[in-house]
Please model this.
Amino acid sequence: MALQPSLRPQIILGHPDAPHTLDIFLDYVCPYSAKIAFKLDKILKPLLLPAGPYEGKFKVIYRFQVQPWHAMSTLTNEAGLAALRVSPRNFWAFSLALFRRQEEFFDIPTQDLTPRQVRDKLAHVAAEVLPTESIDAFKDLLTFKSSANGGNAVTDDLKYNVKFSRQNGIHVSPTVLWDGLVQNQVSSSWENEEWVDFLSKNVKV
Model:
């Protein structure tokens, strides 16, 4: 699937030029997104490593899926894009760290916090996995600076991902696409057996 050049680090697993593509639409405050993210890291990542059985055969693209019924969805997804920008090689590690702590950003724990306070909490998550020298840049990307309603430095990246989801009819997370087509059978509960079976049927190279 298409991906604008500045967002190439959203390819989180596999070789960027691999012929097959698995797109996965995730929201940092969705419990099922967290569940499948950990499965991807545990099950698919080893298969795509050098000398793994699917090395060079498919890639995994992380798609930011903002779901407005989760109050903190926009702020957490902005943080993911900031991490992607300041430290591309640590983006997936940041995402996993945020998924591990996602309950801190659920509706009730954040209902009395200001956006600035939420972003400070997200910076603490970033400090766990991103290089120390990148944290100030991370915070800066999330700071409002332009016009009164102009967003921040990752707003355009967020718009791109939202528009991509909308034009492809993606409504919920997690949603998985294989070579551009929705795979409704893929579940966040899948273990190694189901993923191996899926790949054996769909990888054609």
Notes: The chain has one domain: 5-202. The longest strand covers residues 20-26. The beta strands are 11-13, 20-26, 58-64, 175-178, 181-182.
